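Thread: "does anyone have the structure for this chain?"

Original post by V.I.:
We have the sequence but no experimental structure in hand. Need at least a predicted one for the grant figures.
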Amino acid sequence: MESGNSELKFCHTKKFFGTLFAYLFIKIPTMKLRLTFFAGLFTGALFAYSCNNADKKPEPEMKEANDTTAVKEPKLKEDNVTYTGDNVTMNGYVVYDETKQGARPAVLVIHEWWGLNDYTKKRARQLAELGYIAMALDMYGNGKTADNPDAAGKLATPFYKNPQMMKARFDAALEKLKTYPQADPNNVAVMGYCFGGAQSLNLARMGEDLKGAVSFHGNLIGVPLDKSKLKADILVCHGAADPFVPQDEVKKFRQQMDSAGVKYTFKAYEGAVHAFTNPNATALGEKFKIPIKYDPAADTASWNDMREFFARIFHR
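Reply from O.Q.:
Generated one for you, tokens below.
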């Protein structure tokens, strides 16, 4: 059908120009005037064509269907795992991108004082999307969680008092994660939120064999610092208006680190209070009348700071 239309259009065009040329030969008496007219007609047509096409953008090239350079969308493999340590059974969560081949850096995520919940698992999934294998660990054991500050405080306090218990449970999680062929045992980091941030810093100070430790709105003072034990690079992501981590604590932490000559990165986010990375924090703060609140700008900025930190320590 399209071919027939084209032939019809060609016939009409041919007839039009034949009639036009016959008319011009009658009306224009000399060859010189005819040539002048046709030169002007050609120039005008060329100008009109160039104007008509000046604003046209080049068509994007179509990629071949079998283009191997295209970036694959992550396909996350999620495992609920059980492991033991410190005479306790713990229920963790491991996630990685199964479209990615080979071993990759491993990041363990320590939960807030609420226990291992969906928020911590969400962060592990985000790490997997960045190309890491991540494990959201269960520090309390048996999947225990708290739904109010009093219960959360009772679960968290023993780990502040007994850092060795915390370390034993972390080591059990790390050994479980290392059983995955996707985990590079020579490139491991820890990160945590609130309670988990404080424990991440404690693990670094206790000499855990880590490339890095990241604390999001965690307490800063804990296990005494011994520079000779420290193996991990440290990133602190702190809410500048956090009443749970006041400026006196910040000052003391920085003095300890600076006097020991320890290299670390300290980021403070203006106006951010405690739990600024958790979208559920505002509702929880209002419910229990505690000064915690989500801060989208600080959340985004701290996540980007973490990404840059991991890219540096893992040389990615």
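V.I.: this helps a lot. The chain has two domains: 2-54, 76-313.
O.Q.: and The radius of gyration is 33 Å.
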